[in-house]
Automatic annotation (TrEMBL):
Residues annotated as domain Aminotransferase class V: 34-342
UniProt keyword list: Pyridoxal phosphate
Metal-binding keyword on record: no
Lineage of the organism: Eukaryota, Fungi, Dikarya, Basidiomycota, Agaricomycotina
Name of this protein: Aminotransferase class V domain-containing protein
PANTHER family named in the record: HERCYNYLCYSTEINE SULFOXIDE LYASE (PTHR43092:SF2), L-CYSTEINE DESULFHYDRASE (PTHR43092)
Superkingdom classification of source: Eukaryota
Pfam families found in the cross-reference section: Aminotran_5 (PF00266)
Length: 417
């Protein structure tokens, strides 16, 4: 495998280790991830092994391999192996937790205006159906500081106190999807503990982007992160962390496993086994997380990888803003890890904002490049992901292509400078 070779310097020399079209300008690793070739090779080898004897694999061989992958992930996030299981993606993990609570009228679910769409809709659904817990949405408008976020969070908590014998659950992003900003989620977990609130951390972008995670020390009540975004695993794969003290809350996997035992009949732990097998799936994305971690170790390890990507995000964002003639959302860098948000030179009064957003997406793809674009706080922005194969020149070239897109979009909708 490639990780046995002498590693090249980060930048374009790394592109040979990824299956990207050489002509495609990819600054959107944050959405779907980008699987390295060595991991793809490991998946192909595992797939061949599975197909050679499906019964042997699915009945016997998969379990120790899955346990090893869980062990490796647990080490990275500072957890015990039997506190982590794999699920298809972060949305599934968040849904699993939220749908396992025994909701009552008078319970409160805190979410944010920046909560990821499917998670926000899940909260809405739970409040729409009996017994109708209460939804409390907290408004975040960036740029804003971590201190501002914490103060806003405290204000909403104190304005929505717990009713007698009722629970409160806060769904908190570790790193928001759009804008791609780091929240002070560790401090928010502390606040939740002080206030008697369950903390559910949607850390979709965290593993592989936040260095030195220690969940035992941070101690959230639930934490979910995609391995296919920044940890170099193949999509789709996410890790769900539930500390032992809360595993009784997760009574059932989604879908329900044949190993499900009614809580009234349980005599011991039943958390991990339900997620080991809850229907036939392709286990290769889960099992080859081990290969993804080994590839990252070969590249130099988490600190070296993220030092490069973070520095590139900061410098690349400034370079992109210069080309576009705009500014970065977070000039001080407090909110920025490996994703940077840069304003697009576009009007804010399109007659149909959804149609304009779709036009932007299609137009930048037609330029054989991509970075996520979105509207936030009365401005259009693009979110760029810095990865080990990127260089400053990629941000500058992206800027030139976005300038063409913005000019075309303005002309399409009848705007003149």
């Amino acid at each position: 495998m490639a990780y046995k070779e002498e590693k090249p310097e980060f930048g374009h020399a790394m592109l040979k280790y990824f299956a990207l079209d050489p002509s495609y300008l990819n600054l959107n690793n944050g959405s779907y991830g980008t699987t390295p070739r060595p991991v793809l090779e490991a998946i192909r080898a595992l797939s061949d092994r599975i197909e050679a004897n499906p019964d042997l694999f699915h009945r016997i061989d998969f379990k120790p391999m899955l346990d090893e992958a869980r062990s490796r992930v647990a080490q990275i996030i500072g957890a015990n192996r039997d506190e982590v299981v794999f699920v298809p993606n972060a949305s599934m993990g968040v849904n699993t937790v939220l749908r396992n609570f025994d909701w009552e009228e008078g319970d409160i679910i805190f979410a944010f205006t920046t909560t990821y769409g499917s998670v926000s809709r899940t909260v809405q659904y739970l409040t729409d159906v009996p017994p109708h817990p209460t939804k409390c949405v907290i408004n975040l408008e960036f740029p804003m500081t971590h201190a501002d976020i914490l103060e806003t969070f405290k204000q909403h908590i104190h304005a929505n106190p717990a009713k007698p014998n009722k629970k409160r659950v806060a769904v908190i992003d570790g790193i928001v999807s759009n804008p791609g900003v780091l929240l002070p989620w560790k401090e928010m977990v502390k606040i939740c503990k002080q206030e008697g609130i369950f903390s559910l951390i949607d850390a979709a972008h965290s593993i592989g982007q936040e260095v030195g995670l220690d969940l035992h020390k941070i101690d959230p009540d639930f934490w979910i992160s995609n391995c296919h975004k920044w940890l170099s695993a193949r999509r789709s794969c996410a890790v769900l962390y539930v500390p032992e003290r809360n595993q009784h809350i997760i009574k059932c996997s989604i879908p329900t496993s044949h190993t499900y035992i009614s809580p009234k009949d349980r005599t011991g732990p039943n958390f991990v086994v339900q997620f080991d097998w809850n229907g036939t799936i392709d286990y290769s994305s889960y099992i080859t997380v081990t290969d993804a971690i080994e590839f990252r170790e070969w590249m130099g390890g988490e600190e070296k990888i993220n030092e490069y990507c973070h520095s590139l995000a900061i410098k690349g964002g400034q370079a992109l803003a210069k080309v576009l003639g705009t500014s970065v959302m977070d000039p001080d860098g407090e909110l920025t890890l490996n994703m940077v948000n840069v304003a697009l030179p576009l009007p804010v009064d399109f007659p149909n904002m959804a149609a304009a957003a779709e036009s932007m997406r299609n137009a930048i793809l037609a330029k054989n490049a991509f970075s996520a674009s979105y509207f936030h706080n009365n401005s259009w922005w693009t979110r760029c992901s810095a990865q080990v194969w990127n260089e400053i020149g990629d941000f500058e070239e992206l800027g030139r292509r976005w300038l063409e897109v913005c000019a075309d979009i303005k002309q399409q909708y009848g705007f003149t400078d």
